[in-house]
């Protein structure tokens, strides 16, 4: 009996290591064609979502990997974009060699504004996405498809009215107003890249902000963003003219 129980426990432990908790979330990867900024914003009912989902590289593109996230999609996706592959080709390449692709969800954006997203047929409902010029929105375990629809509409309608970071946070707020992650809220993240805009001008991470655990992560992310703007304002020539 002891040997039997031991084998069961070992089996469960192995499965847990192999298949982590689902990164059930909603995210947006987008760019501003006027400034060249590229970014990802994300919210989830999981701690420290910013350590998993968002990936971006200046002049290359962005990746949002979620739902039992395969984090290799981030680095490899950016590498394929840099090689000249379009977002759809990148998604096909990433998922073709992934035995658990049916559990994955990913959004890919290239620096020229082209976008594509993928939702595996075993992702937990509601799950899906929407892509348009300069953005892709995706989410799983959502209240309904209205979450991604509201995010897309908010992003599209805000063009030319605010910096990219603010447009992404507004998109998250719009998604949450439609119910967001049906399990609730816990963490959020914002990543904005542009060549030479990072700390000291020596990298591309202009804003890399994370709220790892909060009852109101999107509002807290917005607060932290405003504090970050006080210390690191946008270069004057890139300010949005109201």
Short description:
The chain has 242 residues and is of the alpha+beta class.
Task: Report on this structure.
The protein is of the alpha+beta class. Mean pLDDT is 91; it is low at 4-17. It is globular. The strands form 2 sheets. The chain has a 6-stranded antiparallel sheet, covered by helices on one side. Strands 3-4-5-6 form a 4-stranded antiparallel sheet, with helices on one face. The chain is built from 6 helices and 10 strands. The chain is 33% helix and 24% strand.
Labels describing this entry:
6-stranded antiparallel sheet; 242 residues; alpha+beta; 4-stranded antiparallel sheet; 6 helices; globular
N-to-C span: 73 Å
Rg to the nearest angstrom? 18 Å
Main beta sheet: 6 strands, antiparallel
- Let me know the average pLDDT: 91
**What is the assembly state of the chains in this entry?**
single chain
Low-confidence stretches: 4-17
What is the overall shape? globular
What's the helix count?
A: 6
* Spatial order of the strands forming the largest sheet: 7-8-1-2-9-10
Give the SSE order as H and E letters.
Answer: HEEEEHHEEEEHHEEH
Number of strand elements: 10
Tell me the helix content. 25-40%
Task: Specify the structural class.
Answer: alpha+beta
Instruction: Bin the strand percentage.
Output: 15-25%
Topology at a glance:
Blueprint: H1 2-18, E1 25-31, E2 38-44, E3 54-57, E4 61-66, H2 72-82, H3 87-96, E5 105-110, E6 115-119, E7 128-132, E8 135-139, H4 146-157, H5 164-177, E9 187-193, E10 205-211, H6 217-231
Antiparallel strand pairs: 1-2, 1-8, 2-9, 3-4, 4-5, 5-6, 7-8, 9-10
């Amino acid at each position: 009996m002891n040997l039997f129980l031991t084998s069961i426990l070992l089996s469960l432990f192995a499965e847990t290591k192999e298949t982590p908790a689902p990164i059930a979330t909603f995210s947006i990867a987008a760019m501003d064609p006027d400034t060249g900024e590229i970014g990802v914003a994300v919210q989830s009912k999981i701690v420290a979502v910013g350590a998993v989902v968002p990936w971006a590289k200046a002049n290359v593109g962005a990746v949002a990997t979620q739902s039992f996230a395969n984090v290799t999609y981030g680095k490899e996706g950016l590498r394929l974009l840099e090689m000249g592959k379009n977002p759809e080709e990148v998604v096909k390449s990433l998922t073709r060699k992934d035995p658990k692709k049916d559990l994955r969800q990913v959004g890919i954006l290239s620096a020229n504004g082209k976008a594509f997203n993928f939702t595996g047929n075993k992702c937990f409902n509601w799950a899906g996405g929407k892509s348009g010029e300069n953005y892709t929105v995706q989410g799983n375990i959502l209240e309904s498809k209205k979450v991604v629809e509201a995010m897309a509409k908010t992003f599209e309608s805000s063009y030319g009215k605010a910096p990219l970071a603010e447009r992404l946070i507004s998109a998250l707020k719009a998604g949450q107003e439609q119910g967001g992650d049906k399990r609730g809220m816990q963490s959020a993240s914002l990543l904005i890249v542009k060549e030479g805009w990072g700390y000291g001008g020596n990298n591309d991470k202009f804003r890399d902000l994370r709220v790892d655990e909060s009852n109101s992560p999107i509002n807290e992310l917005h607060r932290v963003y405003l504090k970050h703007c006080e210390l690191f304002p946008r270069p004057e020539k890139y300010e949005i003219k109201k």
